[in-house]
Hints:
mainly beta; seven-stranded mixed β-sheet; four-stranded antiparallel β-sheet; 11 strands; 0% helix; 48% strand; globular
Amino acid sequence: QVQLVESGGGLVQTGDSLRLSCAASGRTFPLYAMGWLRQAPGKEREFVAGISWNGDTTYYTDSVRGRFTISRDNAKNMVYLQMNSLKPEDTAVYYCAGRTSRTILVGTGYDYWGQGTQVTVSS
């Protein structure tokens, strides 16, 4: 069992940066692929970025590639999402998620979820 707690969201302006953090509990965390997903008002939850269990492989949805960077520190049981050049369309609740597999899932079928953190980008 893994519990996930996100932090770092907030209200920023277009072009600003934010770093989201996800603290994970559980000794098996280093074996899990992790992801960041988001849900904007009135829209379905969507995949944003994923990282393999050892951090060697990452994947991004097209709309954030080149602006966002996912990383992890298995020694600290942490996952991060560095978000640069933020746009109003990035406004959403961002969720940290994990799956009981070492490979990235480009989708929403994760096994474990955090409670979410709100990111609002004003124009």
